[in-house]
Amino acid sequence: MHIQFKEISTELRSTTIDNLRLLQEFLVEVIDESLLVGSYLQPETNQVQRRIACRSLFSAFEAHSSILKQSAVVMDQLREESVFNEIEMLALRDLEYTVDQSGSVKKKKARIRFKDNIKLAFASAAKAHGFDHGIDWGAQEWQDFSRALEIRDRITHPKKVDDLTIKDADLDLIKAAYDCFRRNVKLIAGKMSYPNTIFEHE
After folding, report:
1. DSSP string covering 54-91, please?
2. pTM of the model
3. Percent of the chain having pLDDT more than 70?
4. Rounded to whole angstroms, how far apart are CA atoms 52 and 74?
5. Burial of 49 (0-12, 13-18, 19+ CB in 10 A)
6. How confident is the model at residue 75 (pLDDT cuts 50, 70, 90)?
């Protein structure tokens, strides 16, 4: 799909370059962290290490999603015509409309479910960059991802002592979620591109 880009002013070009570099640095930090944490997903690790790894990995997944959404916003600002409506753009900025007690319409922080936020991030990044993400959310790997998320929720909000235990079978699900997410982020990131004019004359 050919994307029509705006004529970019010097100020916009400078701002865009800065934003993209920050996103890239953020992504590198998150990748480094997730790789380190991934090393704890081994059978010989103790329960404390397993819980730290599980919580940290899902935090990294959330950070990746944030990066993809921010990238979609930046890319959309460069296009001749926006591909997102006002409601979609609010969601990408983690905002939504609400009506207060006086009847005034205001924006507030949106509470998007973890799995829905991931879907929004992947779909929006692909849409902004002009390609189909091609992810089958009903596939077994994403079903396993959902089960791993339930483990994260269980150890984060335990109701009894046993809820803190991550068994070997649980560990396998967390590892599968880690592999699934990394593979799909790599797939999406590999297709994302920006107009060469942004980076001219640096």
Report:
1. HHHHHHHHHHHHHHHHHHHHHHHHHBSS-SS-HHHHHH
2. 0.81
3. 77
4. 33
5. middle
6. confident
H and E: helices and strands count for the chain:
6, 2
**Cα–Cα distance for residue pair 50/56, rounded to 1 Å:** 10
123 residue type, one letter: A
φ/ψ bin of 36: left (φ > 0), alpha (ψ from -120 to 50), beta (otherwise): alpha
Spatial neighbors of 108 by CB under 8 A, at least 6 apart, are 95, 96, 97, 98
Type of residue numbered 43:
P
Q: Which amino acid is at 163?
A: D
Q: Which residue has the tokens 């649980």?
A: 170
In the numeric block, the tokens 């050919």 are attached to 2
Q: 105 - beta bridge partners? A: 99
* CB distance 34 to 53 below 8 Å: no
pLDDT value of residue 27: 65
Q: CA 152, CA 58: separation in Å to the nearest integer?
A: 8
* Residues 76-96: tens digit of each pLDDT: 887 778 899 999 999 999 999
